[in-house]
Amino acid sequence: MCTRKSLFALSLALTFGAGTAVAETPGLGQAISEADIAAWNIDVLPDGTGLPPGSGTAKQGAAIYSQKCAVCHGENGVNPRPGYLPMVSPPKFDRIDAPKTVTYYKHATTLFDVIRRSMPYQMPKTLTNDELYALSAYILTLNKIIGENDVMDAKTLPQVKMPNRDNFVVWDPSKI
């Protein structure tokens, strides 16, 4: 009986005390602004939502790659340093241990998003939008996914057909 009363008293204290605790904040920090959110809201969706303005070609990307990427990923995307992935990979994934790099992606926008968030490794998020599009174009060209003269921008990048796009399976537990 005593246990019931204790539990009831505890539940009342938590119920009515929670409102008071929420109302009493420590007054630290400041409200986040829309500009603060926008600076961190850099995700790019498969349909191109979130892609910034800008454009670039493979020719422009070759110079940027040579200067900012080749030291880790190798000249022309092959023979990377130990611990780094090559940028040129097999066009087909016919075995489980095939390197899962650029041609493995389902969407070309994934390439842009990865570069934008994490490259160059030693200084991430320092590339301009035009450099990002140019590097994407160059890497897609190295993998023979787009032509040398194709321009990548917010409209064309989501339209790129990646070679592995149809090999992903969405798991549906209701079909077990």
Give structural notes.
- The chain has six helices and two strands.
- It is mainly α.
- Strands 1-2 form a two-stranded antiparallel sheet.
- Helix 3 (58-68) crosses helix 6 (129-142) and helix 5 packs across helix 6 (129-142).
- The longest helix has 22 residues, at 2-23.
Topology:
Blueprint: H1 2-23, H2 34-40, E1 55-57, H3 58-68, H4 70-73, H5 108-118, H6 129-142, E2 151-153
Antiparallel strand pairs: 1-2
Helix pairs in contact: 3-6, 5-6
What are the salient characteristics of this protein?
3% strand; 6 helices; mainly alpha; two-stranded antiparallel ribbon; 176 residues
Oligomer: single chain
The Cα radius of gyration reads: 24 Å
Strand order of the largest sheet: 1-2
Percent of residues in β-strands:
under 5%
Beta-strand segment tally? 2
CA distance, first residue to last residue: 47 Å
Ranges where pLDDT stays below 50 over 5 or more residues in a row are none
What overall form do the CA principal axes indicate?
A: elongated
Q: N-to-C SSE series?
A: HHEHHHHE
Structural class: mainly alpha
